Amino acid sequence: HLTQADKKQLLEDAKYFKGGKYVWGGTTPQGFDCSGYVQYLYKKHHVNLPRTAWAQSKKGLEVSKNDLKKGDLLFFLTDKSRGIPVTHVGIYIGNGKFIHAASKKKGIIISPINTGHYAQTFVKAKRILQKKI
Questions:
Q1: Pick from 76, 79, 70: nearest CA to 56
Q2: What pLDDT, on the 0 to 100 scale, is given for residue 1?
Q3: What CATH number corresponds to the domain at position 43?
Q4: For an engineered disulfide with 42, which of 18, 47, 52, 71 has Cβ 3.0 to 4.6 Å away?
Q5: Catalytic residue at 34?
Q6: What is the distance between the alpha carbons of residues 74 and 39, in angstroms, rounded to a whole number?
Q7: pLDDT tens digits for the chain (133 residues)?
Q8: Residue 127: closest CA among 88, 86, 69, 77
């Protein structure tokens, strides 16, 4: 079971990489893509998530955008040309914000979920409760 202490540490780990490098297909601190970043952070806390945002979106318990808790995964459709319903993922950090590996230009940043681009492309949120999923 993922405890509040686990999630607190996960968020501290996530924020440690703020300003870090975005690399398409990246799964290490030398450079992450969005799902590689999420997978790396959760794996550090003994949770094995799939490699892609789309596959990650199939795990966990779906939660309402109004009921988000720190550590929840947020999923977005940012690239309709790929023909899949989810193309981006980030981690909710509270106060209507999430941290994510955004793009090559922006790297790992914190963004709002209720305004702008990510409000328009939001698909769903998931809560990962178990260490083994």
A1: 76
A2: 73
A3: 3.90.1720.10
A4: 47
A5: yes
A6: 13
A7: 788 889 999 999 999 999 999 999 999 999 999 999 999 999 999 999 999 999 999 999 999 999 999 999 999 999 999 999 999 999 999 999 999 999 999 999 999 999 999 999 999 999 998 766 5
A8: 69
Based on the residue annotation, tell me whether 45 is a catalytic residue of this protein: no
Query: What is the dihedral angle through the alpha carbons of 115, 122, 105, 26, rounded to the nearest 10 degrees?
Result: 150
CA–CA dist 63, 104 (Å, integer)? 29
For the chain, the domain total comes to 1
Q: Is residue 133 part of a domain?
A: no
Residue 33 falls inside a structural domain: yes
Tell me which of 1, 45, 46, 88 is the catalytic residue.
88
> Where in the sequence is the domain holding 42, given as residue range(s)?
4-127
Catalytic residue among 34, 45, 46, 117: 34
Note whether residue 132 is domain-resident: no
What DSSP character marks residue 22? B
- Examine the residue annotation and report whether 100 is marked as an active-site residue of this protein: yes
Q: Within a domain: residue 29? A: yes
